[in-house]
Specification:
Largest sheet: 8 strands, parallel
CATH class: Alpha Beta
Radius of gyration: 19 Å
Helix content: 40-55%
Distance between the termini: 16 Å
Order of helices and strands: HEHHHHEHHEHEHEHEHEHHEHHH
Number of domains: 1
CATH topology: TIM Barrel
CATH architecture: Alpha-Beta Barrel
Bound molecules: hypoxanthine, zinc ion
Number of strands: 8
Strand order of the largest sheet: 1-2-3-4-5-6-7-8
């Protein structure tokens, strides 16, 4: 069983990525190039210095490094280049469909117009079609900011509603429960947007947050969310309602000392729609295939389990049933012939 799953196998495997923060795909090379072009002092001037600044051991210390780096993103083309750089990685790893998170408030709060980043990011998703990747956008609210700020962000976003498919909730979960944003989620759903939200790993009140997300707010997916295993009844509920879980093993091992391998396997075995993603690949040591591979290697996943995770990625995605069937047939064919 060991080594049944190779890096080559997971790289070539058709898959969807559903938990990817575009700002978290900003590699040190592009960060430095944009800093220089836009005359932004980020406090580092070499790749080594940038890498040395990547010191974090929980969500809050990660976010403290993550947000200041975004200052280098200034123009529509900067956002386009950022997204295209990610999409090229995705292409190399046979990501067939991707739903990309972006954080409007991390940009509007520093004077960048909504129009600037949405147009740059959206243009990249259109150009992704030429690479045979289906790319969509999901707008996230920063949960450490106020509900009013989220509400204003939604209002600002609605004229661009055709450029993104749903809303999510990210940033620091500590003392920022999902119910703080309940009315904003209601408004978003009324506007025809799909709903997801982070329930980061090992947060205070995690089960309560997950329960409110599922039973009150009614999200279709939970980003991370593996603490749900602590409440078997809630797992049953999630399985019954086909709730997606977007887990990110490498990210987990940065903000905690573990990948949550046993929890991922348990949810997989119970039939939950759990899938594997990269979260912030430029900060957490790798893109989606490395996440699949390291999980499989360290927790002895079989090829069938890895393929099931990829099947789940399509099933939990926000594409049509017809399109899901096409991608899954492609995946089955790959699994049969590799
Ligand atoms: N959790 C919360 N906020 C984030 C994350 C995450 O995984 N990645 C980027 N912002
Ligand atoms: Zn995330």
């Amino acid at each position: 069983m060991a080594n049944e799953v190779t890096m080559e196998f997971v790289q070539g495997m058709p898959k969807a990525e559903l938990h990817l923060h575009i700002e978290g795909s900003l590699e040190p090379e592009l960060k430095l190039a944009l800093a220089q072009k836009n005359h932004v002092d980020i406090g580092q001037s070499t790749i080594e210095e940038v890498r040395k600044s990547y010191q974090y051991d929980d969500l809050a210390s990660f976010l403290a490094v993550y947000y200041p780096a975004m200052n280098v993103l200034q123009t529509e083309d900067d956002f386009y280049d950022l997204a295209m750089a990610y999409l090229k990685h995705a292409k190399e790893e046979n990501v067939r469909h991707v739903e990309i998170f972006f954080d409007p408030q991390a940009h509007t709060s520093r004077g960048i117009a909504f129009e600037t980043f949405i147009k740059g990011l959206y243009r990249a998703t259109v150009d992704a079609r030429a690479m045979n990747i289906d790319a969509r956008l999901i707008m996230c609210f920063l949960r450490d900011l106020s509900r009013e700020s989220a509400r204003k962000t939604l209002e600002e976003a609605l004229p661009y509603k055709d450029m993104f498919i749903g809303v999510g909730l990210d940033s620091d979960e500590h003392n920022n429960p999902p119910m703080k944003f309940f009315p904003v989620f209601v408004e978003a759903e009324k506007a025809g947007l799909r709903l997801t939200a982070h329930a980061d790993i090992d947060q205070k009140d995690s089960i309560e947050h997950i329960r409110d997300l599922l039973e009150v707010i009614g999200v279709e997916r939970i980003d991370h969310g593996t603490n749900i295993v602590e409440d078997p009844d809630l797992v049953d509920y999630a399985v019954k309602h086909q709730i997606g879980f977007t887990s990110c093993p490498l990210s987990n091992s940065f903000v905690r000392p573990e990948m949550k391998g046993p929890e991922i396997k348990e949810l997989l075995e119970k039939g939950a729609k759990i899938c594997i993603n990269s979260d912030d690949p430029a900060y957490f040591g790798g893109y989606i295939s490395k996440n699949y591979y390291e999980l499989a290697r360290q927790f002895d996943l079989t090829k069938e389990q890895v393929v099931q995770l990829a099947r789940n990625s399509f099933e939990a995605s926000w594409i049509s049933e017809e399109q899901k069937a096409i991608y899954i047939a492609e995946l089955e064919e790959y699994a049969r012939t590799h």
